[in-house]
From TrEMBL:
Belongs to the NOD1-NOD2 family. One of its GO terms (cellular component) is cytoplasm. This is NACHT domain-containing protein. InterPro entries: CARD, DEATH-like_dom_sf, Leu-rich_rpt, LRR_dom_sf, NACHT_NTPase, NLR, NLRP_HD2, NOD1/2_WH. Residues 13-104, 116-196 form the CARD domain. The keyword Membrane applies. It comes from Gambusia affinis (Western mosquitofish). GO terms for biological process: innate immune response; regulation of apoptotic process.
């Protein structure tokens, strides 16, 4: 429609004629922001009253319906109203309706001092549009002054800052709330805004390179990042938990920097140069298993940045969720990606983007959950022009590897499975998140329970059940256990052992929480809620089968998910930017989706036992089978695609494996009676048999892959990644027969499980299965995260262990105390290696006792710990009474001369010691002179290592002299 015709029309007529166009302009972005801004202006001009607003903005009603309501309202109010309405639209969306036909409205600027006749509440109303713009950038500060002046309580603040509101909505809520508190409160806000305007203009003067538009954008971004990250979503269903109140530090490991492992690392250090493997690369990767706390850690980074507490050298931070990026179907440029998916600049887009291009080192991008992106990282399709449009995953890969926006730092989180060599090449560094430490568990539980008695009880029951304590190293499990403390305390000591037990507990907890009968949940709780379980289960299952984690209303309808199923709390509403206008949901956590998928696989009468074999299929076989049948085909459902491409199956393997682990647990004998009322028992039995068969077959395949030993060499089995998973499945199933059967077929003398991501939970499972081995083996667990709790979990299988290798496993003296308490009675146990743990002198009295007691103990390696002269003296006490030890390694401790002298004294007449290392121990000549006595007198010593000490000429001469008289020593 041409401008001339428009000018000829009356405002009311025009409103009717251009209705569709106006609605589109107001609503097509999917955000309610434009509509609300128009209403602000009409409110300020007195054209709308509060009641009108309530009639227009009906919560839960579709955006378009609300906008229609407004159009109807201004139409009925008459010509003048329509005219003001057009003016408002014109100001807010200058381009939207083409040429202007009315004079621009009176655009006011903030100015409170000139009109003393108006009351502060009047001012709040007449200046509303400008106040909203201003306040959205400084909600925190405004709330602070309101609390300090006694007008607001913290509950008032929480109500305003709910993360479901955008910053501008929070500003409006603040204004409305202040209005209800009266004139003084209004005055406080007006003064605060005026002061912050003044300080803003002085900031711009001191920092002239940042333009006004940039500063505004920065504030908007900061407050939107803050709003998104303030609360933890796992608490969303029941209550709001501020991240600040619950966040507990997680353990971290820098793989190439063992000295710093498990040490607390701040965000500055993580982003900075420490532990860099590639100084040219800009991407820092934080990897960890599902539930290890990656998203929460990143959320913490976002929040602390937004609060101005960390990483302030970065002026802009753009947070992305890969899960949400999956639903972006359009090709985008980097500029569109940043502005449309993170924060929209109200003005000066080009200028702000140019700033980003000119100052990449001042900008930080974060990408959460790279493993959830539908496409695997590849380094193929290169683009380097920021204005070039491309599919979002292509942009993402180019950003990560640096051909786009070189110099911008990126932080990416992912599960380890999705991190291949192609990606590693482009990493500045990689850190591993390792969940909570034992003290972290304690700290989390205390934060979670405001009642200290309740916290103490939970902690007590964890201490009494170390298998459960082991599980709690995973933050997601610690969260469940804390959520379900009532069930936990009510279910009797030791009854929770497996991950499946814990997830069944939370399932029951949610149902209990929503049970209409508030009495204890019935014995048939599952049957009572079977409909919900099957609906949600199907949704979860189909999601896992085709890498979907966000579900539309249509997806939910297809699976029969009802409003009351949603209310149970397993699903939370997803904040998906690109689908903002329609509601979407996701599961509270990916592991919960896997659990519900597993329940569906078992309970659905439509899934046969073939679904079980597909779930258990090993990755290697899966690759071979790719072009054949597919996982989805096992389900009699229409909407699972029949062709799943290789990369998505590969990306999905971890979730399928978690689901299979739950399937194993659910098919345990212990739970069979739970299923009787809920499914066909014949079918469940068939599925159980199938799962057992798959596990047994999987183990055998593994054992077949063990190469024949070379002559004289021990037969050794190096675990493939899936070995630990199979072991965990057998443990979840609590199937001793299966464990015995598998172990009877294992013919190896040495099990190598290095770098297998073994923590306490895996140790529990390993011990459960390995204890059934027929012959003693060496168990090599170097470079995992066993920790003290893991050591304790391994105890049940120590009787079949002759050598235990636990290098680099975060073990302390306490773990050693428990270990030695056990192995002291086990004649098979002869060797231990504990290089690079956290041992101090306190552990040496236990080793001393071991040496005294066990006269067939052969090898003790304690390198790179914190043992001093005192510890060496303790060891010497044990060595005096020992006649069997052949290898003693103390490399990289601090035993000094005194320690060396004590050891030499104990070993000088030894007839067993063959190899002794005191490398790097601050040993001087006095120590070396003492060592010469061993060379001189011991009949067995063959190698003595003394490098990296401070031995001078006297010491060397003494050693050389001693060597003249010796017949056994081969090297010093
Ligand atoms: P991941 O991203 O590794 O799968 P999440 O960060 O989603 O794991 O963690 C799952 C849940 O565990 C969170 O929703 C939260 O309840 C809890 N959690 C994780 N990390 C922490 C932490 N550092 N402090 C407190 N709770 C945490």
């Amino acid at each position: 429609m041409g401008a001339d015709i428009m000018k000829a029309c009356l405002p009311q007529e025009l409103l009717l004629k251009r209705r569709a166009e106006i609605l589109h302009a107001l609503c097509s972005s999917g955000s309610v922001e434009h509509l609300e801004r128009v209403m602000d202006m009409l409110l300020a001009q007195g054209e709308l009253g509060w009641e009108d607003c309530q009639n227009v903005l009906v919560p839960g009603r579709a955006l378009y319906s609300n906008a229609r309501q407004l159009l109807d309202l201004v139409y009925t109010k008459g010509s003048a109203s329509c005219e003001l309405f057009f003016n408002a639209v014109k100001q807010i969306l200058p381009e939207a309706l083409g040429d202007a036909f009315f004079s621009p409205g009176c655009h006011s600027t903030l100015d409170f001092r000139e009109k003393p006749q108006r009351t502060p509440t009047d001012e709040l109303l007449t200046q509303r549009p400008e106040l909203v713009l201003k306040l959205q950038d400084c909600i925190d500060g405004a709330l602070r002054v309101l609390v300090e002046s006694g007008h607001f309580s913290s509950t008032d603040c929480d109500g305003i800052q709910l993360p479901i509101y955008t910053p501008s909505q929070q500003a409006r809520r603040l204004l409305d709330h202040v209005r209800s508190k009266g004139e003084l409160a209004s005055l406080v806000v007006l003064k605060y805004v005026q002061q912050s305007l003044e300080s803003e203009s002085s900031l711009e003067q001191t920092n002239p390179s940042l333009t006004k538009e940039f500063v505004k954008y920065q504030k908007k971004l900061r407050s939107s990042v803050s709003a998104q990250s303030r609360f933890l979503s796992t608490y969303g269903g029941t209550s709001h938990m501020p991240l600040d109140d619950i966040y507990t530090e997680v353990q971290m490991e820098l793989p190439n920097n063992s000295a710093d492992n498990y040490k607390f690392m701040g965000f500055e250090e993580i982003i900075g140069p420490v532990g860099s493997v590639n100084d040219d690369a800009d991407t820092v990767l934080a990897s960890g298993e599902a539930g290890s706390g990656k998203s929460t850690w990143l959320q913490r980074l976002h929040l602390l940045w937004a609060q101005g507490k960390v990483l302030q050298d970065f002026l802009l931070l753009f947070p992305f969720s890969c899960r949400r990026l999956n639903s972006e179907q359009r090709d985008l440029s980097v500029q569109e990606l940043l502005f449309q998916h993170c924060c929209w600049p109200d003005r000066g887009q080009e200028e702000i983007f140019q700033f980003i291009l000119d100052h990449p080192h001042l900008v930080l991008f974060t990408f959460d959950g790279l493993d959830e992106l539908k496409q695997c990282f590849v380094d193929e399709h290169r683009i380097c022009c920021p204005s070039q449009r491309a599919p979002v995953h292509v942009l993402l890969f180019n950003l990560i590897q640096g051909s786009l926006m070189k110099g911008v730092r990126k932080v990416v989180t992912s599960r380890p499975e999705a991190v291949g060599p192609a990606l590693k090449k482009h990493l500045h560094k990689e850190i591993h998140l390792k969940g909570f430490s034992p003290s972290g568990i304690d700290c989390f539980v205390r934060k979670h329970h405001s009642d200290p008695n309740e916290a103490a009880k939970v902690l007590e029951s964890l201490q009494a059940n170390t298998a459960l304590l082991g599980l709690c190293h995973s933050p997601v499990l610690c969260w469940i256990v804390s959520q379900c403390h009532k069930e936990l305390l009510g279910c009797g000591e030791g009854s929770l052992q497996t991950i499946t037990d814990v997830y069944l507990m939370i399932l029951q907890h949610f149902f209990q929480h929503h049970s209409t009968v508030k009495s204890a949940i019935g014995v048939n709780w599952l049957q009572e809620n079977l409909g919900t379980v099957l609906h949600l289960g199907q949704l979860a299952f189909e999601g896992i089968s085709n890498s979907s984690y966000i579900f539309s209303v249509t997806d939910m309808e297809t699976c029969g998910v009802t409003e009351s199923d949603i209310c149970m709390g397993f699903l939370i509403q997803s904040k998906d930017m690109s689908l903002a206008s329609s509601k979407c949901y996701e599961f509270l956590h990916i592991t919960l989706q896997c659990f519900l998928a597993a329940l569906f696989a078992i309970l659905s009468r439509n899934t046969g036992s073939s679904v079980i074999s597909k779930l258990f299929e090993l990755q290697e076989m899966k690759k071979k089978r790719l072009r054949g049948t597919c996982f989805g085909a096992c389900l009699n459902s229409t909407n699972i695609p029949n062709i799943v491409e290789e990369h998505s199956i590969m990306a999905e393997t971890p979730n399928l494996q978690i689901t299979a682990t739950f399937v194993s647990g659910l098919l345990s004998q212990r739970y069979q009676k739970l299923w009787i009322q809920c499914s066909s028992s014949v079918l469940v039995e068939k599925k159980t048999k199938q799962a057992e068969k798959c596990l047994s077959k999987g183990m055998q395949q593994h054992f077949r892959s063990i190469p024949q030993p070379m002559q004289e060499e021990k037969k050794s089995m190096h675990a493939m990644p899936e070995f630990v998973w199979l072991i965990k499945c057998i443990y979840e199933m609590q199937n001793i027969r299966l464990a015995k059967d598998a172990m009877s077929k294992l013919e190896a003398e040495h099990l190598k499980l290095t770098y297998c991501n073994i923590g306490p939970v895996e140790c529990t499972a390993l011990a459960y299965v390995l204890q059934h081995l027929k012959n003693p083996v060496g168990i090599q667990l170097d470079n995992n995260s066993v920790g003290d709790v893991g050591v304790e979990q391994l105890l049940p299988c120590m009787h079949i262990c002759n050598s235990l290798y636990l290098r680099n496993n975060n073990i302390t003296d306490e773990g050693i105390r428990k270990l030695i308490d056990k192995v002291i009675h086990l004649p098979n146990f002869q060797k231990i290696a504990l290089f690079n743990n956290r041992l101090t002198d306190a552990c040496t009295k236990h080793f001393s006792y071991l040496l005294k007691t066990r006269q067939n103990f052969l090898s003790l390696r304690l390198g790179n710990n914190n043992i001093t002269a005192e510890g060496a003296k303790q060891l010497a006490e044990g060595l005096k009474f020992n006649h069997s030890l052949q290898y003693l390694g103390l490399w990289g401790n601090k035993i000094g001369n005194e320690g060396a002298e004590a050891l030499a004294n104990a070993l000088q007449n030894s007839e067993s010691i063959v190899w002794l290392s005191l490398v790097g121990n601050d040993v001087g000549s006095a120590g070396a002179c003492a060592m010469s006595n061993i060379i001189r007198n011991s009949t067995s010593l063959e190698e003595l290592w003394l490098t990296e000490n401070c031995i001078t000429r006297t010491g060397v001469e003494s050693l050389t002299e001693a060597l003249k008289h010796n017949r056994h020593v081969k090297s010093v």
